[in-house]
Amino acid sequence: MGLLQQINGKYAPETDKRPEAAKNSGLLEKAERFSPEPENFVQWAKTRGFKHAGLLRPLQKNYVLYQAYGIDAETYPLMICSPDYLAGTVRQFGVWVSFSYAENSLTKVYQLFSEKTRQQLTVVSFLRLTDAPDSPYLVLYAFDLKTELPPADNFIRTEGRVLTHFADDTDFSGAALFRETNGFNISPAYFLELRIRPIIETIFNDKQFPAEALQRRLTATLYREIYDTIASSFSFPNAVYPGKDRKIKIILFSTQQPDAELMKIHIATSLKRLLGEKEAFSIVLHSEGTSKTISGVKTFLLKD
């Protein structure tokens, strides 16, 4: 059984070849309906065919990114905006508001994106999810020319509740509860640990934030996107769990001793679009031993 799902090509960078990009499937690929509901925002965006998606909600007189998928880390601090800016950009509830390369209107929203993303943008779309004054906003963007959005009223009716739930998601940290596994039929459990906080601190080190609370929130959002990206690369019975102090704990079952350096390359490759190549390949993966028992696994998960 492989330790990682195949990721070759899955995280290949999108380029700025706009004429060729028109052949792509668009902002919204054919969305399949999955049951039960997605467990997290990253899963939601993937199953609906979105490649770049974020949820903005208010915090200390600003709107800030609470959930993200496919959004590069350099864009995170730029997606802090005032309620007046969003109200002026998205004037009413229940209507998609889009800015596009084709209509030469993207400059109106460039302030929300990193330079790298601006160079590839073709369309950005906003949707206010409720008519409340503190409504969360969904933002979608793409690097191809073809755009395809569902009717806003139907989208809010079918997706609004789960999106509002994700927007209310609190800080994602702490040891998770371990679920039962049949992995011990394969091998002992091998333990690996990633320390994510230093990487996030490096990325945000020279950035200006209007308030410390906004930086803390963006740190939590970026950690969540990193965690969900890594977790989606591992197949059962292998598992990924959040740890304390922005750590990520990995449990592997394999008939062979896992190659930590090869594992690091796989993980760094999956994070390259999100963090940038330098930061992605600066991750440090620690081997934390093995265990043949569930109690040993739980001890590893609860360890600081």
In short:
The chain is of the alpha+beta class and 304 residues long.
Features:
elongated, 5-stranded antiparallel β-sheet, 4-stranded antiparallel β-sheet, 304 residues, alpha+beta
Describe the structure.
With 304 residues, the protein is of the alpha+beta class. It is built from ten helices and nine strands. The strands form two sheets. The chain has a five-stranded antiparallel sheet, with helices on both faces. Strands 7-8-6-9 form a four-stranded antiparallel sheet.
Helicity range of the residues?
25-40%
Please work out how many helical segments DSSP would assign.
Answer: 10
Radius of gyration: 20 Å
SSE string, helices as H and strands as E? HHEEHEHEEHEHHEEHHEH
DSSP strand tally: 9
Report the average pLDDT across residues.
82
Q: Measure the end-to-end span.
A: 30 Å
Binned strand content? 15-25%
Strand order of the largest sheet: 2-1-5-4-3
Which overall shape is indicated by the principal axes computed on the Cα atoms? elongated
Largest sheet, in brief, is: 5 strands, antiparallel
Flag low-confidence runs: 1-35
Sheet/helix structural class:
alpha+beta
What's the SSE blueprint?
Layout: H1 18-21, H2 41-47, E1 53-59, E2 62-69, H3 83-89, E3 97-100, H4 115-118, E4 123-128, E5 137-142, H5 152-167, E6 189-195, H6 197-204, H7 212-231, E7 239-242, E8 247-253, H8 260-275, H9 277-280, E9 285-291, H10 294-302
Antiparallel strand pairs: 1-2, 1-5, 3-4, 4-5, 6-8, 6-9, 7-8
Helix pairs in contact: 6-7
